Amino acid sequence: MKILHVGKFFHPSCGGIETFLMDLTRASQGSGVEQGVLVHAQHAEQPGSVDAEQFPFLEYFSRAKTRGSLSYAPLSPGFPLELSGALKSFKPDLLDLHMPNPSVFWGLLNRRARNIPWIVHWHSDASGPEFGSSVRLLYPLYQPFEQWLLARARRIIVTSSAYLEHSRALRKWRKKCEVVPLGLDPGRLIPLPEANGSSAWQSADRLRILAVGRLTGYKGFDVLLRAMAKTGAELVIAGSGAERTRLERWTRDLQITDRVRFAGAVSNATRNALLESCDLLCLPSLNRAEAFGISVLEAMAVGKPALVSNVRGSGLPWLVSDGLTGWHVRPGDIDDLADRINALDRDRSKIAAMGARARQRFEDHFHIDPVSDQTINVQRAAMRS
Question: Residue 193: its pLDDT value, please?
Answer without folding.
Answer: 62
